[in-house]
Amino acid sequence: MTGQIHQLLSVTFALGAVQLISGCSFKNCIADPYSNGTIYKCISRKEENLAAIVNDVPTSVINLSISVTYVTHIRNYSFVHLPNLQYLRIDHNNLSTIDPSAFENLHQLQSLNLSFNYISELHSSLFKDLHNLTFLSLTNNKLKQLPEGIFSTTLNLNTLIMRQNHLTNFSGIAESVSHLMNLKVLDLCFNSLTSLNHSNVSLPESLTTLYICRNNLSTLGCKNSFLRFINLLDLSYNSRLPAMAFQDVDLRHINYLRLRSTDVRVVEFLNISNINAGHVDFSGTGLKNDNLLMELCRLLKRKVKWIKNLHLSDNGIENLTNYALYDCPKITGHLDLSRNKLKTTSCLNFLKEQTHIKSFNAEHNHLTSLQSCKTQNNFKNLEEASYRYNRILSVNAFAFQHMPNIQRLQLNINTIAFLHRKALKGLKRLVTLRLDNNLLTDLFNETFEDNFKLQVLNLRNNRISVIFNGTFLRLKNLSILDLGGNKITYFQPSGLDGLKNLSKLYLDGNNLKQIDTSIYHAFQDTLTVLDLQSNQIHFLTDNNLSPFMNLSKLSDLKLDGQRPYGFTVLPHNFFRGLYSLKSLYLTNNNIYHLAPDVFDDLTSLRFLTLDRCCVGVAHLEPGVFKNLRNLKKLTIESMGIQNFSKDVFGNLTQLQSLQLNRNVMQSIHVDALQSLPKLLYLDIRNIPLSYTCQNSLLQNWTKNNPDVQVVYLYDLMCQHDAKFKFYNFDTKVCYIDLGEYLFFSTAVVIFLFTVTPLLYVKLYWTMKYSYYVFRSWFSNQWRRLREEEENCKYGAFISYNSSDEQWVMNHLLPNLEENGSSFKLCLHHRDFELGRDIVDNIVSAVYSSRKSICVVSRNFLQSEWCSLEIQLASYRLFDEHRDVLLLVFLEPIFERQLSSYHRMRKVMLKKTYLQWPDPDCTDPMQAQELFWNQLRRAMRTGSKLETEENAEIEGCVTAEMNHSSFCCGERVIQYL
């Protein structure tokens, strides 16, 4: 007892721990979202340990299914924490062993299904606590016998099913159930019983239905009164059971006896049995010819005057003459001739006097046609006829004239290619007509003209391509029309006229390329269901009017899987007018874009499925579901959705079930889930959620929302490492208090964003120069440049724009390097080192030359590289106090043009500069000669440039505040 208590406490503790962690989410089970936590299904799981499954569900569970798992063993007290359980299924598993106290504490259990397992033995006390059990199924196991007293406490058992086992001892079974005063059904089919031999026990008087089919019975071997309370007895497929086995057995209460495929000769059986002959099913009893049938009929007529049902199926009957059933008692109900070899029914001439028959069944025969019966006997009481599963190719005119009051006619699953225009003539009371799964190609306006009471017409899976005008004109009472699975390409303008009360229209699987609004006018106020799945409807533009504008009562619309490429475009006003629509199906359509107002009119929608409706990655526009405030179930699987946000899903305030699985979002915003106050069921399987701080709030939300079930939460694995699961990845680092650090970092960032633009404007070139100088110093280049400064490699570095290259080559180079001059110039196109960074080349050139000559023009001022060169040279001028910079202006430059070149203006305010003589000067040759002399002299000056005022020229100089110009007869240089 101590061990049992310890085990019970362990189970209870484990359950509490799981519920504390998971809230309303489960590892192996799914709760029905509409059952208030009372129905759970644990199906197709790989779990072998039953406790891991059972401990997954709360104590409130009433209905629990554990199916298709690897469970092999049910241990003691497995369900002790589920005292409210009423329905338990543990079927289709690998179950072989059940401990004696496995169902302990299940006092409320009413139904237990243990079928399709490998159970070979049951303990006698297994069901001791199941006092309220009414249904028990042990179908398809390996039981050979029942232990004594196994049902001693299940006094309320009503139905016991033990078919498909290896039971051999009927006496033990009878003894086990003899005290069950509420037992009504006992099913022992497909076992190995050889007789009904029993000891001094009786079957309970409450037992009315006993199935012992497909055993090895060769005798009944029971007391005469043993079956006296049985109403339904099935002894079929006991091939060795003879008629003499029923000698003196009391069968007076039998209402239905099956003897199919036994060795019972029915005539002999009826002669020795006290059964009511009208309660015997003669199917499969070898009555294959007229003589045997006539003999049976005469015997029946001697015993009873009328018979309700006559079952003659599966007797191998090939032909029935007019007198085969002539001597039978009056048949007032059903005649079953199915599963024989009949090639014709001859307008039911073989029934002659059987005019009271109400139902006739000729299914599964070899009928090839239905002939005209215009002048034959009139079966006015016949209400139902079935010719399904035959080989009927044609139905001739007036084929059913002999059954004018028939209400249900089934001609489906044949090969009917010809239906005469008057084949259904005279059937004015016909309510249901099934012509589906045939080869019909055409319907005419005369086909249904007499069937004005028809309510259900099924023409599915034929080869109809066009619905002609007036086809259904007389069918004003038709409520269901099924034209699915045909080849319909269009309806003629009046093709659906007359259908004033049509409620359900099925057009799926046809070749419709558009939805013609004009054909719905007859039933626009009555239609509730419209099925247009798998047609060829598509749109190329968004400029289409709604074809459903006037279908004000439509509640169910199916548009799935348009062939071959889907809708392509879904017009934004496509659903305009569908204010009563409750369910909408749009799966498997290649929609490129869902307009934000496409569902605006669907204010009553309860169910919407968009599985695989879109092409590639779907981008749902904010507000696309804004008017779906009554939506309860939304399925958007495999849409490629990247973002689950409140802007899209925030208005679904009544949503209870949301299926998001197989999408591509890496995170789910918790605020979007919090905006769904009625959510009960969330499926996010097969979504590549990132197990980072980005989803830490989502993890916390799944744990702290007991009303929302996240399907198989424990199975959500990390995409990169299967060892980590979503429900327990480490989120501690996500909740560290970083307020102080964030404040200072934010302050620094704001300061940098404020100061950086100012520094950029004021100190851009200073910083850039400093950067390159530092880089040169770092590469040990600074020392080399310093040394070369004392023994310079070049006399001058020439900085110029490429547009001024002609002046440099034609004037500057000949006058400074040639014509007896000793200056060596550094020109970028000639002396820069190949493969070296251009800025490094400029720095090297500036510091390897005694002077830097800037040839200034308007093009020069527009060049970024020229600007960099003059800036570097001016830095050397100011920072080293060396007279290294000479400015030569090729054209007049005004001060406003130098406003952005403040470094150049600063140089001009402190230093003398030269300007190339104006060609309009009085003596340009003399002015140019004076220009070159002054330039050579400036290049020879020392480190300090002093004021030159004694230089006399023959020309003239005019000076202005912002530039100098050479003219004859004045001074050469003007100081500014």
Automatic annotation (TrEMBL):
This is Toll-like receptor 21. Residues 1-23 form the signal peptide. It is found in: Membrane. The keyword Repeat applies. InterPro entries: Leu-rich_rpt, Leu-rich_rpt_typical-subtyp, LRR_dom_sf, TIR_dom, Toll_tir_struct_dom_sf. One of its GO terms (cellular component) is plasma membrane. It comes from Trachinotus ovatus (Derbio). The chain crosses the membrane at residues 741-761. GO terms for biological process: inflammatory response; innate immune response; toll-like receptor signaling pathway. Keywords: Glycoprotein, Immunity, Inflammatory response, Innate immunity, Leucine-rich repeat, Membrane, Receptor, Repeat, Signal, Transmembrane, Transmembrane helix. It is a single-pass type I membrane protein. One of its GO terms (molecular function) is signaling receptor activity. PROSITE patterns: LRR, TIR. Belongs to the Toll-like receptor family. Residues 792-939 form the TIR domain. SUPFAM superfamilies: L domain-like (SSF52058), Toll/Interleukin receptor TIR domain (SSF52200).
